[in-house]
Design goal:
The complex is a heterotrimer. Chain A has one domain: ABC transporter involved in vitamin B12 uptake, BtuC (Orthogonal Bundle), CATH 1.10.3470. In chain A, about 75% of the residues lie in helices and about 5% in strands. Chain A contains 14 helices and 4 strands. In chain A, strand 2 and strand 3 form a beta hairpin. Chain A is globular, with a radius of gyration of 21 Å. Chain B is about 45% helix and about 15% strand. In chain B, helix 2 links the parallel strand 1 and strand 2. Chain B has 2 domains: about 220 residues, Rossmann fold (3-Layer(aba) Sandwich), CATH 3.40.50.2300; about 130 residues, Response regulator (Rossmann fold, 3-Layer(aba) Sandwich). Chain B starts with a helix and ends with a strand. By secondary structure, chain B is α/β, with parallel strands linked by helices. By secondary structure, chain C is an all-alpha fold. Chain C has a single domain, classed as ABC transporter involved in vitamin B12 uptake, BtuC (Orthogonal Bundle). Chain C is built from 11 helices and 2 strands. Chain C has a two-stranded antiparallel sheet with strand order 1-2. In chain C, helix 1 crosses helix 9, helix 2 packs parallel to helix 4 and helix 10 packs across helix 11. The chains are: A mainly alpha, B alpha/beta, C mainly alpha.
Chain lengths: ~325, ~375, ~290
């Protein structure tokens, strides 16, 4: 109970918000973006934060999920759930085949390789007009039904996204505390040392790469059905970089750090709209200031601060009790 | 920008003072929402669109509004991104509760939001080019710019006149380029034109000599470049560098002074279809559009500098809405929509609009003029 | 054959642009292992300030000089006010700071210079140079000569000068560098200033060919990064080699396979190279310390 206390509080807030404000723009429109971005950031954090493997191509898997849903339902007439399964299959094969050679690379070279992968997929979305609809994308996806229950309003979508996001967060928290999670952080710490301890580092890295790609893929399918529309620019390398920024902004290696980072980066542009032409400038400045003063990430920094204060108080109490 | 805000603020304050002093009851405002690509790669379209809307709305409000209804203007910048466009249209409908939407600078942005406005039943006038926006007709969606299909038709007609039967196509990778390319490929056979090369570039590319070298090796009699922004200027310069003497056609995407400025003397001899705005002073005095065009040009240039045809589309959309509201007599989404559809004989910057339940654009091919660049100036051909 | 020669020359002209941008990455990378995502913005700032100074009536050579100075100042400020205060920042955090900086600088450029596209006049006469049936512009020659000159300067700087060696020492081991009396702070400051100046030179050289907008830095930075990685990060010869190879792969891919997919072809080649040479063409393999 105690281990997951934060998770329960977080779930409660997430699920109560739309009940309190069922028709609020920030909840049912911006909220959807926030929820999907949290799922993506948390899945990326598994790879980046726990296993220490940077990826600048996460948006590609997100996009492949979205496009699979769009193409298989509209062009080939499959049911949404079959299309999602196809998407997962494609992403599984692609990420599995690529994981070994790509994850052999390190640091900036790994960043380059994942970036390249992301861009190649994006070029495919733009150029293969006959299949993908080119830059204008594909619109008119059918409504998704869960157990015969159609998801056709923003409010219903909120709950679907929220559920998916909470499952992702729970999985991430559990992985971190599991044997696999400890193997991951060993790989993060030092790959050679991990190998010495008998961890098959290539296998561990490859598994987490595939797993995080699959989560992004499902997120993409859901996103496509909710938006009713897919177009390439939602899956460009800019979005991949944005996801990396979310993870680092909140605190690399912390699930809730990714949650906080995703929340801030999704909500900030909405709040900055009023500044019109100054929006870009202010956005950049805020990003810089947070990273300069809280380099370990917003969430992690605050958590550490609270822990530190609690420790101080404890010390004081101990001192008082003994004197 | 700041000055603008000041003006808006000033007009709001004076409006409130006016309210306070007069006992008369103010009429319900007309809320116009807008989402435009004011920054980002399509900013050369979105920026003049926004300026035009702001300028005329200010003027209308200063004169007391539309039949006493003041216009409340809400605007968002999509940066040309479809996802943002969707969010902003949702925001316009749900949060700002606007009566009419004008915007969607790029075809991608417009196509992304059609579902939403159709479902929410809000009249929407798009400022984007693609034919897909109004074909097939969607009940709540209209548009004012000429379509890419019309541009291709106009260009092919001109080629036919010059006896050109084999052309090389070179296009960018943006939505405008790709949609134009598709129209060209589809329409060419109808005009007996064979496309012997179909090359592409990225809109951020720095050099197109490779594609042009391939074109040079074919037996093309002309080059058709469907694109916008800096890329067509690079195409023109590279063609000159390679010593290619073939006639070059551009789309209406380059109908701004900037293109001539960037391409320099490489622009001379290039032909393009465009709205009459850029050659307003060359129109015969009998042309019904002439006075409208000159007045728009004068106003825009006095305030912001050189005019482009793109801002004109926003002018057309705004006044189609204003006229529709006047005819409807009430602020009601459905009634405004019906009246927009009944627009007849409206003289705008893009041409004379005659809309109908089967035509939500209302422009004929004659709304496009064929223009050639001569000595760094636009020259009206016909 | 004519075509092949032109593809090759086009590839070389495009490639030298990438190389020039790539070169800028190496200095900051060599000082701190950080890939500076604002490098493309330095290029843009150099070009845009030269354009606007020229418009303001400042003579061309002086405008270029002042533009380089402006960009260098921006680089110094970036280090002083964003990188230096972030004392506890790791490499990844610092990279995110540079991403923030690139967004910030783009926003500032948008406010200062607006959204329009601008060009610079070519340095010298604009008649194409013919090599057989292939052609190139004198400005392309300027870019190539500029690249060649700068790569020698950068190589000399790191191999022969005390400051250059000191900067390299900082990247290998900050603490050790500090202990042997190197002022790490100053070295970083110099690295950012030089890198920004280098970016500005690139911007001024290429603006007459490709035009500039406030947002043009992003794609230039991206291609420069690819070139730098392909050649081997931090190696100035590698940056040039990477840039030229990238340019030629793009043009040959566009020429013989498909111009629509030319970037995909280029990235595919980069991936292949990395699979076989995980540290780039001229990069040295990194040894992980346990």
């Amino acid at each position: 109970m105690k281990r997951l206390l934060g998770f329960y509080i977080f779930s409660f807030i997430t699920l109560v918000l739309p009940i309190l404000f069922p028709d609020n723009y920030y909840v049912t429109v911006v909220g959807l973006t926030v929820l999907i971005n949290i799922s993506l950031a948390v899945s990326l954090n598994l790879l980046m934060g726990y296993a220490g493997q940077i990826s600048l191509g996460h948006a590609a898997f997100f996009g492949l999920g979205a496009y699979s849903s769009a193409i298989f339902t509209i062009k080939y007439g499959f049911s949404p759930w079959t299309a999602i399964t196809f998407g997962l299959l494609i992403v599984f094969l692609l990420s599995y085949i690529l994981s070994r050679p790509i994850l052999k690379l390190k640091g900036h070279y790994l960043a380059m390789a994942t970036l390249g992968l992301g861009i190649i997929v994006h070029i495919f979305f733009v150029q293969a007009d006959e299949i993908t609809g080119g830059p204008d994308g594909i619109s008119g996806l059918p409504t998704l039904s869960i157990f015969g229950f159609p998801i056709d309003t923003d409010l219903k979508w909120y709950f679907v996204f929220a559920l998916f996001m909470l499952i992702t967060v729970l999985l991430s928290l559990n992985i971190a505390d599991s044997r696999a999670g400890r193997a991951l952080s060993a790989v993060h710490g030092s790959e050679i040392a991990a190998q010495m301890m008998g961890i098959d580092t290539a296998k561990v890295k490859s598994r987490i790469f595939v797993f995080s790609a699959l989560i992004a893929c499902i997120a993409g399918s859901l996103f496509a059905h909710q938006q009713n529309f897919v177009s390439p620019e939602s899956f460009s390398f800019f979005f991949s970089i944005e996801l990396v920024t979310m993870v680092v902004l909140g605190g690399l290696g912390s699930t809730f750090g990714a949650v906080v980072g995703a929340f801030i980066l999704s909500i900030l542009p909405e709040l900055l709209i009023v500044f019109e032409d100054f929006e870009v400038l202010i956005f950049g400045a805020i990003l810089m200031v947070i990273m300069i003063f809280l380099p370990e990430g917003l969430f992690v920094a605050i958590k550490n601060k609270i822990a530190y204060l609690a420790f101080k108080r404890y010390q004081k109490e101990v001192a008082n009790a003994t004197s | 920008m700041r000055f603008n805000k000041f003006l808006v603020l000033f007009s709001i304050i004076s409006f409130m003072m006016f309210l306070g002093s007069s006992s008369s009851f103010a009429k319900k405002p007309l809320k116009i929402g807008s989402f435009l690509a004011v920054t980002g790669p399509a900013s050369f379209l979105g920026d003049p669109e926004l300026k035009t809307l702001q300028m005329y709305i200010e003027e209308i409000n200063a004169k007391g509004g539309v039949d006493g209804h003041k216009i409340e203007f809400v605007h968002y910048d999509t940066k040309g991104k479809a996802k943002e466009a969707k969010n902003f249209v949702n925001r316009l409908i749900k949060k700002d509760r606007v009566d009419v939407i004008i915007g969607g600078t790029t075809s991608g942005n417009t196509l992304a939001v059609i579902d939403i406005v159709q479902r929410a039943k809000v009249p929407f006038i798009s400022l984007a080019g693609s034919i897909k926006i109004v074909e097939p007709v969607k009940k709540w969606v209209f548009k004012t710019p000429h379509t890419d299909k019309m541009a291709a038709q106009k260009i092919f007609e001109d080629m036919k006149k010059r006896g050109i039967t084999k052309i090389a196509l070179i296009t960018g990778n943006g939505g405008f380029d790709k949609s134009g390319r598709a129209q060209c490929l589809a329409l060419a056979p109808k005009y007996g034109i064979k496309i012997v090369a179909d090359e592409q570039y990225n809109n951020s590319d720095t050099d197109m000599t490779t594609q042009l070298t391939k074109i040079r090796a074919t037996d093309a009699q002309a080059i058709l470049n469907f694109g916008f922004g800096k890329a067509p200027a690079i195409v023109a310069k590279n063609a000159k560098q390679l010593g290619i003497k073939l006639p070059i056609y551009e789309s209406h995407g380059v109908a701004s002074k900037k293109f001539i400025e960037l391409a320099g003397d490489a622009a001379n001899g290039i032909r393009l279809p465009a709205a009459a705005l850029i050659v307003a002073d060359q129109l015969p005095d009998t042309d019904p559009q002439k006075s409208v065009l000159l007045s728009y040009k004068k106003k825009f240039e006095a305030k912001y500098g050189p005019v482009s045809t793109f801002g004109g589309h926003a002018y057309d959309a705004l006044f189609i809405v204003v006229n529709a509201v006047k005819r409807a007599g009430v602020i009601d989404r459905a009634k405004i929509r019906d009246e927009i559809e009944k627009t007849k004989g409206f003289v705008g910057t893009g041409g004379v609009f005659n809309m109908s339940p089967t035509d939500h654009l209302g422009l004929g091919l004659d709304a496009f003029k064929m223009i050639e660049i001569q000595n760094g100036k636009w020259k009206l051909l016909y | 054959m004519d075509q092949l020669l032109q593809f090759f020359i086009s590839g070389l002209t495009v490639g030298s642009i990438y190389a020039l941008v790539a070169l800028g990455f190496s200095i900051i990378y060599n000082a701190s292992d950080v890939v500076n995502f604002a490098q493309g913005e330095f290029v843009m700032i150099g070009a845009m300030s030269a354009i606007f100074m020229l418009k303001a009536g400042i003579p061309y050579p002086l405008a270029i000089f002042l533009a380089i100075l402006t960009s260098a100042t921006v680089g110094l400020c970036l280090e002083k006010f964003a990188i230096e205060p972030a004392k506890r920042a790791t490499v990844v955090t610092t990279i995110i700071i540079t991403i923030g900086a690139s967004i910030f600088l783009r926003g500032a450029a948008l406010l200062i210079w607006g959204k329009d596209i601008y060009g610079l006049p070519p340095f010298t006469d604009n008649t194409p140079i013919h090599i057989g049936r292939a052609t190139m512009l004198p400005q392309n020659l300027w870019v190539m000569l500029g690249t060649a000159f700068l790569v020698i300067v950068v190589k000399y700087f790191f191999d022969k000068t005390r400051v250059g060696k000191a900067i390299l020492a900082c990247s290998y081991n900050k603490k050790a560098a500090y202990l042997v009396g190197i002022n790490v702070k100053t070295m970083l400051l110099i690295a950012y200033g030089l890198s920004a100046a280098l970016g500005a030179v690139a911007g001024v050289l290429i603006a007459p060919i490709t035009f500039m907008t406030y947002g043009a830095g992003v794609m230039l930075g991206l291609k420069g990064f690819c070139a730098a990685i392909l050649g081997g990060m931090g190696n100035s010869m590698g940056a040039v080699l990477g840039g030229v190879i990238l340019g030629i792969v793009e043009t040959v891919g566009a020429g013989f396979i498909s111009s629509g997919y030319k970037d995909a072809i280029a990235f595919f080649v980069i991936l292949l190279v990395l699979f076989f040479k995980p540290s780039g063409i001229l990069g040295k393999g990194e040894v992980e310390r346990v």
